[in-house]
Design a protein that fits this description.
alpha+beta, binds zinc ion, 8 helices, single chain
């Protein structure tokens, strides 16, 4: 039971407007004698004007109608089409009902005032598969007619194709239908602190914890249609699946530019955070490598250093653990007296350490190390350079530095 009819002389009549068409009012055709020459635009069968119990005007097929897709339309479907058409007209666009296109038929076809843009609005109240809707969506897109599927129920294809779910008003009247699903906003969430507790307490800039959620304040159908036609509300593919907190898991949502920008800001913040974490990891790697190199140097220097200290101090050389006390160098003891320190860390040579170094021999493996250490020490500090071969892969320190000394 369609909302439009073909009139033999007046052309297409639209029951949702006044007049219905070229100089034809509802009064001149409703219950007219003789009856108006009206046929179905879909099947060609005869139609007659009819009023629903609640006052909605429509056209009904005459008896013995053939199979026609418009016959099965329910009152709710007609009401929704009417609602869509009036929202489109309210927005200043033209609305045509039941328009056939290239392999598709639009329930309501919206055309911009300048005629340059078209968009279909489909009242899809019956069950339909996601695949079929995708096909119908792409057929319309091929004709450069974007589409929005409108339903009154929780359907699996909301979010899979451009669609909205609304609350359908009980009777015709002012557009009070509300959008309940299909539209979304990006809820920003940034941490004011540098160390973000929501992110495992890791230091650094907050990667953001925003998400796509339902529109907090109900939007009515008229506002939504006007926004879409004006281009302020657009279809958007949610970029990151884990940002989704919507009734459906699918990623196609209607939203405004502002929310797309906010989503992008969070993606960029996350990327910056990832970069920073990677840098920190690389920094840590380098630090570990520096420690390993220091251990390798100390390990290679130990035999000649022990040899020299043993000869000069004439006694048992104890090789003790590298500690901050010795600027992480390996101290050598004879008769419980420190005699030398192998490869201390220059940056850890404090005034206190310097005092401890006085009179001792420091051992280094390279000229660069000698120079750096000499700069940190007093001029009288004795530094011995042994050009030992430092293995690239040092043995584990536990093996290198036992507490056991060496007897000469
Ligand atoms: Zn028909
Ligand atoms: Zn945070």
């Amino acid at each position: 039971m369609p909302l439009t009819a073909q009139h033999a002389q007046a052309g297409v009549l639209d029951a949702t407007v006044d007049p219905l068409g070229e100089g034809t009012s509802w009064e001149t055709i409703h219950r007219a004698r003789p009856r108006a020459p009206l046929t179905c635009r879909e099947c060609g069968h005869g139609l007659h004007p009819k009023l629903s119990p609640k006052g909605l005007r429509f056209f009904a097929h005459d008896r013995a109608a053939p199979t026609c897709s418009l016959v099965g339309e329910t009152m709710a479907h007609r009401l929704l089409k009417l609602q869509l058409a009036s929202a489109i007209r309210e927005a200043g666009w033209y609305a045509e009902l039941e328009v056939a296109g290239d392999g598709w038929r639009a329930d309501v076809l919206a055309t911009s005032p300048d005629g340059a843009r078209r968009m279909a609005w489909e009242a899809q109240l019956a069950q339909i598969t996601v695949d079929e809707l995708r096909q119908r969506t792409s057929r319309m897109q091929a004709s450069e007619v974007p589409v929005c599927w409108v339903t009154d129920d929780d359907r699996p294809w909301i979010g899979a194709v451009p669609a909205i779910q609304i609350t359908v008003p009980a009777e015709p009247g002012p557009a009070d239908a509300q959008i309940v699903n299909g539209a979304a906003v990006f809820r920003e969430s940034w941490c004011p602190r540098r160390r973000c507790e929501n992110d495992g307490g890791a230091p650094g800039p907050c990667p953001g914890h925003g998400w796509w959620g339902p529109v907090p304040e109900a939007v009515n159908l008229e506002t939504f249609v006007a926004g879409v036609l004006a281009g302020t509300i657009r279809i958007h593919q949610v970029a990151v699946r884990k940002y989704l907190r919507l009734p459906t898991a699918a990623r196609t949502v209607w939203t405004t530019r502002q929310h797309v920008i906010t989503e992008r800001a969070q993606m960029e913040a996350s990327a910056r955070r990832r970069e920073r974490d990677e840098l920190a990891a690389a920094e840590h790697e380098r630090h570990l490598a520096a420690i390993a190199a220091k251990l390798a140097r100390q390990q290679a220097l130990t035999p000649p250093a022990v040899d020299l200290v043993g000869r000069e101090a004439r006694g048992y050389v104890g090789v003790r653990d590298a500690t901050p006390e010795w600027a992480m160098g390996v101290p050598l003891f004879v008769h419980d007296m420190p005699q030398g320190v192998i490869s201390p860390v220059v940056s850890r040579v404090s005034a206190e350490v310097l005092a401890r170094f006085r009179g001792l021999t420091l051992f280094v493996a390279t000229e660069a190390e000698r120079r750096a250490l000499a700069r940190a020490c007093e001029p009288a500090q004795r530094i011995v350079l042994f050009e030992v071969e430092v293995p690239a892969q040092p043995r584990p320190p536990a093996v290198t530095y036992g507490r056991a000394g060496r007897v000469r």
